[in-house]
Amino acid sequence: TDISKIRNFSIVAHIDHGKSTLADRLIQSTNTVAERDMKAQMLDSMDIERERGITIKANTVRIDYTAEDGETYVLNLIDTPGHVDFAYEVSRSMRAVEGSLLVVDSTQGVEAQTLANVYHAIDADHELVPVFNKIDLPASDISRVAEQVEDVIGIDASGAIAVSAKTGQGIKETLEAIVTQLPAPKGDPDAPLKAMLVDSWYDSYLGVIVLVRIIDGKLKKGEKIKFLSNDTVHHVDRIGVFRPEMTVIEELGPGEIGFLTASIKQVRDTRVGDTITHQRSEVEPLPGFKPAQPVVFCGLFPVDSAQFEDLREAIDKLALNDASFSYEMESSAALGFGFRCGFLGLLHLEVIRDRIEREYDIDLITTAPSVIYDIHMKDGTVTQLHNPADFPDPTLVDHVAEPRIKATILVPDEYLGEVLKLCQDRRGIQEDLTYAGSRAMAVYDLPLNEVVFDFYDRLKSVTKGYASFDYQLTGYRQDNLVKMSVLVNDEPVDALSMMVHRDRAEVRGRAMVEKLKDLIPRHMFKIPIQAAIGGKVIARETLSAMRKDVTAKCYGGDASRKRKLLDKQKAGKKKMRQFGKVDIPQEAFISALKMD
Ligand code: GTP
User: Fold this and answer.
1) If you take atom 18 of ligand 1, which residue's CA is the nearest one?
2) pTM over 0.80
3) Ligand 1 centroid – CA 105 distance (Å)
């Protein structure tokens, strides 16, 4: 392909602003897919993504477009993940293209993820084309959004294209803008091969499929290539492009985006951002590469311990396709055998947990999500704590440091008070507070630990869904952090132990034991429920003994009602685990940790 006729771009947008719908339209209007093959939201390949309306795996499509100047152009759209957990992947995808469509819902305006992603695009030196979507809706207000884009993002919005991805209005103008406003890629076809590994995923027929952007040189089938990060060599058995279905082609040249397969067995061996060259070539690695680092850890245990092997199989399979998901076996006194798993963030955790439960039909107990703490021992050594249950003897610990984040929150004025209060409650330190129109932008320094559990849910609920949120990790800081244990009937339940700030321990402990008291069913005996730090009890509740059989209140009269009650009890039983003599229902593990 003539490099001057290539345009590579991505779409920057906040969730629900219409990225997928617009992508579908661009594909459809250039007849890249026959109408009947057009599935809604072509680019989101996994069902779970479609259901949750989020895009996780980067994906790409090559579109041939004959422009008004009579020339045919090759447009490569790279889809970027739309969630904060995948910031590194976003930044890599952005490096693989020269420009972005900045899609803003003209009924809503700029949101936190619009900002976060546009910063990635600006970092990658992108040319930006503002696209104001949903102009078919009565609430659409283009001049307000234009003003906001200029104020908040600081780019010229006078040339913005007014689009309805729904009706198709403005699609032609968008395609023309891609051709005329975005630059063609640069690259030297005669230089040694240099390509960026943009993404990879596992396919059961072809093995690992690697998405690449060629920077310099050419890549052909049959060649031997090497990955610089791990110095592995692979024999390329297939190269091609997505239209959006896989189409095999002969070679990829500079500026092009396509895939290769090379009998690679594991996604783990292919790292996003890595540099690829020919086996015998020497090239400088691309800047900014870093291996995926899980930041949130939790234990996954089968509710039914007989399903442990099934769980192992499910986790092995999921890990094949997800290099950023880490796991190792774990055994817990209370929960038996399970896995300690590492995730890029909470959403990532939820997606994996959902897939295990749904696709593999395994009920899970998820222990409290935890971040990685640095434990500074008195002897000067530092260990990393992934699981609060492993906290060392406190008398040997000098201090504990925790990861912090910089959080950016955009919210309509009227909810600002609630947001500031929430951030304050979570030990946040305000760094910035600015206004753009009727919206406020608050920037907070927060402990990641205070955010991983339910911060996002809380934020959504106190702002009626109007706030948007984005974060990045900034580093570690020492604080007064302790391990809080929970004892049920005098037995420690390690799956409920958590790291807390000393000043918040009483409040958290109290909330936890009160919740557990409601969640644990009564037994034939009294059950003390306690929260403790070291040996010191900081909160205590007692669940009183059950007085009589639950069916007694039916007075033996209504047999069907009695049976229903017993059935209900039985179903409830299935989802419980025994701790010593006490049954604790599965939902207790999650609910007890939610802070109200
Ligand atoms: P994520 O994949 O979650 O990031 O969302 P997205 O940005 O891809 O948004 P999506 O394309 O899924 O659109 C979100 C919703 O807005 C869907 O219900 C679309 O049907 C709707 N929508 C998209 N574009 C338009 C438009 O131009 N007009 C109207 N009325 N609705 C639109």
Assistant:
1) 16
2) no
3) 9
